[in-house]
Amino acid sequence: MKKRDLLTPIGITLGFIMIIIAIITSGGIAGATSFIDIAGIFIVIGGLIASMLITFKLEQIKLTGKIIKEALYQKDMQLPELIKLFVRLAERARREGILALENELEDIEDPFIKKGVLLVVDGIEPEVIKDIMEAEITAMEDRHYKGRTLFEKAGEYAPSWGMIGTLIGLVLMLNQLSDPATLGPSMAVALLTTLYGTVLANLVFLPMASKLESKTEEEVFTKQIIIEGIIGVQAGQNPRILEEKLSAFLSNEHKVKLQEEETNDAFVGESVNEA
């Protein structure tokens, strides 16, 4: 299940708002209009698009929308709930046998967990299961890297095109040296393209690339826990021992949460028995 990651759009919006406020505070509304240069926008955006078309295949560029969506959403995978799931699977496997886990598949939404359980039910060797699932992690990392590279390259190209626009503006300015009154405005316009490129790189492209990298690391970490859980269930480990083993991956905050949930579950169970 995915939920919106509001921090990314909030951060980008806040960054632009702060820049706009700084401009208006310094030069007023009238001064703010001097920061808009259509030619500079065309140079930076057009040059950036051209560079991306040269660098990447069309298939990769078509994924831009999907990659942006990944940056704006995150998987809601709670580690304590994940550990409780494997404890439940281990308890059922020890009580009813490995084949009984097939009945649990309908309640499992995560395809990676479902695939691991299916491999266990099929009687695949633990080493083979681990190899298959780790190969899937490697493939996922490769896909994520290719997607993230789009933003990393855009973050590299944007300031460069801003500098190209500045150089074009400086050449035009030097051609007008006979009119000193035009030097100031011409210099300002020449510098705007550098501003556009730098802002796009450091407020949009590079931060989003870093966010995607962070999400990949979190997903890999979660999948490693899943692999350990799957292997533990297949090996017939004691559910409590498996829980302790998987809990080693948790932060102190998550460990406290897991203990609280277990206490609540035990309390509910006692209440039901008494009733």
Automatic annotation (TrEMBL):
Domain MotA/TolQ/ExbB proton channel, chain residue ranges per copy: 106-220
GO cellular component: plasma membrane
Name of one Pfam family that matches: MotA_ExbB
Membrane topology classification: Multi-pass membrane protein
Transport in keyword set: yes
Parts of the chain that traverse the membrane: 12-32, 38-56, 154-174, 186-206
Location(s) in or outside the cell: Cell membrane
Keywords: Cell membrane, Cell projection, Cilium, Flagellum, Membrane, Transmembrane, Transmembrane helix, Transport
Record GO biological process: bacterial-type flagellum-dependent swarming motility; chemotaxis
Similarity remark: Belongs to the MotA family.
Protein name: Flagellar motor protein MotP
Species of origin: Oceanobacillus bengalensis
Source organism phylogeny: Bacteria, Bacillati, Bacillota, Bacilli, Bacillales
